[in-house]
């Protein structure tokens, strides 16, 4: 049987861009790279991704421009939109099983987890993933919490070869290009000493990440039905992050 990769998007702090990056990565991998993708939205407080899918469907239904764009996309790639399903963290494995039963050819399932470890089932879901992808920002509270949790999980894994989780993959998000690199370099050095892997790709702070489909037909960037448009994709580094992730995961 095909080995489907399970990747959780997780950070214990909110506001670091988990759901946005999940949507953008899923769209790029599915619609541009030709990978078969599904998303499990476990963020029970918001279910941001599933709500966006509903908004996207409603907006496309009301806008001729987007209907035409969807027809062009279908003619070009012959792929339906990737599946988005709601779940609690504790029920994620069951939802994953249902997705794989419906489509055994899935290459990767992205699991968007809530930003709280107190949510039932988060820890169990994390250790049953293949990888955890973690956005980080240069904030002391965020970094201390993130590094403490990651090292605790990795220490827990030692001597337990049967657990699926292979590693945490960190990447910098919302980086102001004009800011000094000293803080980032210092945290990178600390994380290297802790044997925590930081990806090379850095995502910039940019207003484009908030642009959704609109009935007014304004330029969009974030959507569950379309990939990021090439014009806005340039300079966003989402494509670089996806390519680096594919290389690390042998996807």
Automatic annotation (TrEMBL):
The family database entries (Pfam families) matched by this protein are listed as: CbiA
Occurrences of domain CobQ/CobB/MinD/ParA nucleotide binding (ranges): 8-211
On the tree of life, the source organism's domain of life is Bacteria
The residues forming a coiled coil are: none
InterPro entries noted in UniProt: CobQ/CobB/MinD/ParA_Nub-bd_dom, DNA_Partitioning_ATPase, P-loop_NTPase
What is the protein name for this chain? ParA family protein
Give the source species: Dysgonomonas termitidis
């Amino acid at each position: 049987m095909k080995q489907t990769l399970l990747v959780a998007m997780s950070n214990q702090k909110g506001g670091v861009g988990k759901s946005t990056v999940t949507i953008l990565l899923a769209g790029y991998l599915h619609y541009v790279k030709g990978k078969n993708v599904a998303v499990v939205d476990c963020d029970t407080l918001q279910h941001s991704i599933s709500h966006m899918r509903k908004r996207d469907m409603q907006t496309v239904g009301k806008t001729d421009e987007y209907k035409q764009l969807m027809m062009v996309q279908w003619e070009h790639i012959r792929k339906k939109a990737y599946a988005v399903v709601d779940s609690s963290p504790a029920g994620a494995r069951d939802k994953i099983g249902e997705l794989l039963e419906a489509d055994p050819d899935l290459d990767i399932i992205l699991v968007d987890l809530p930003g709280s470890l107190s949510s039932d089932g988060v820890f169990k879901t994390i250790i049953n993933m293949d990888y955890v992808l973690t956005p980080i920002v240069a904030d002391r509270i965020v970094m201390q919490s993130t590094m403490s949790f990651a090292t605790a999980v990795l220490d827990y894994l030692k001597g337990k070869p049967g657990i699926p989780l292979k590693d945490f993959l960190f990447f910098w998000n919302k980086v102001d290009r004009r800011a000094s690199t000293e803080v980032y370099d210092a945290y990178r050095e600390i994380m290297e000493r802790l044997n925590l892997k930081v990806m090379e790709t850095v995502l910039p702070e940019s207003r484009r990440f908030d642009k959704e489909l609109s009935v007014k037909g304004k330029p969009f960037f974030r959507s569950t039905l379309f990939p990021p448009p090439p014009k806005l994709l340039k300079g966003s580094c989402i494509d670089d992050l996806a390519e680096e992730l594919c290389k690390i995961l042998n996807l």
